[in-house]
Amino acid sequence: MLGLVNRAIRLMDKISLWMIGFAALSLVLIMVDEVINAIGRKFGVPLPCALELAVSLMISSIFLAVSRVASIEEHTFVTMTTRMLPRPIKRGMDCFGYLLGVIVFGIISVGAWEIAYDSLLKMEMQIGVFRFPIWPFRIIFALGVSLLSLQLLANAVRAAIQIAQGNYPEETVGGI
């Protein structure tokens, strides 16, 4: 049973690694979009919907990457009050925080999927000089928040296993 749980955790870590690749691709596409737009403006022919595309791709670059940040546990920690606590208590607090995150982001995920579904049915577009589809980015947002929820659940299970086995990760001091 524990082997199956560990495989599921590793699978979630791999999925989050793939998602950061798609997030990086979004950033590259934003740069290409803006370079083409800047060159086009110099010649009086700006790229249509450049701003809308950049804003929409920013959603991808943020919400597809956030599950990887949770996977490697490199998000922001405030350790002012916890650094003197024993490791089991600190890891227990981590587990509780992850479970709380699962609940919060799970609720957000459900709402995001409802909005994405409605947007898909309507083929929702942003109206401007040109019509720009926003429904794909609503789906990407819902996917990203859902993956974050699953990753936080995997982290909570990993922390619980570490507590049960008395095997704690090495503590690192933040910095560059």
Describe the protein in words.
The protein is an all-alpha fold and 176 residues long. The protein has one domain (2-74, 84-165). It contains 5 helices and 2 strands; from the N terminus they run ααααββα. A two-stranded antiparallel ribbon has the order 1-2. Residues 172-176 have low confidence and may be disordered.
Topology:
Elements: H1 2-42, H2 50-63, H3 66-71, H4 87-122, E1 125-126, E2 132-133, H5 135-165
Antiparallel strand pairs: 1-2
Strands across the major sheet, in which order?
Answer: 1-2
Assign a percent range to the helix content: over 70%
Order of helices and strands: HHHHEEH
Largest sheet: 2 strands, antiparallel
Number of strands: 2
Classify the beta-strand content into a percent band: under 5%
Radius of gyration over C-alpha positions, nearest whole angstrom: 20 Å
Class from secondary-structure proportions: mainly alpha
